[in-house]
Write a structure and sequence with these properties.
The chain is an alpha+beta fold and 118 residues long. The chain is built from 3 helices and 4 strands. The model has no long low-confidence stretch (mean pLDDT 90).
Length: 118
């Protein structure tokens, strides 16, 4: 499991930007990122460290920012087209078609995908 104690003294923030019409703030993705950071910290990330921006026609930007003395490390994902979401759904549907009947999770799909599967 992840252990973010390797970055002692770093502040960790989640910054997400979506179009001005998006109603939820923060987004579900930002909340999921905060939960993942919390698992790495072995304590919940304070909700004040999640920053939601609603502006223009931004499809979806998510960043995890690690800020320390004299340095900043950023992990970012920027969706520039909504087509991305349809392509992801199709990729997962192809994966599901090859699975045994029953309940499956996105985590299972991602594990297979990360290992070079569909």
């Amino acid at each position: 499991s992840s252990d973010l104690r390797l970055l002692p003294g770093f502040d960790i923030d989640i910054v997400e930007t979506h179009h001005v019409r998006k109603l939820d703030a923060p987004s579900g993705t930002a909340k999921s990122l905060a939960e993942a950071v919390g698992r790495g910290l072995r304590k919940p990330l304070d909700s004040s460290r999640i920053h939601a921006i609603r502006a223009g026609d931004v499809v979806g930007d998510h960043e995890v920012v690690f800020s320390g003395a004299g340095e900043r490390v950023t992990i970012a994902h920027r969706a520039t087209s909504r087509d991305l979401f349809a392509l992801g759904a199709l990729r997962m549907a192809r994966w599901l078609a090859g699975q045994a009947p029953g309940m499956h999770t996105a985590d299972e799909w991602f594990t297979d995908f990360a290992r070079g599967g569909n």
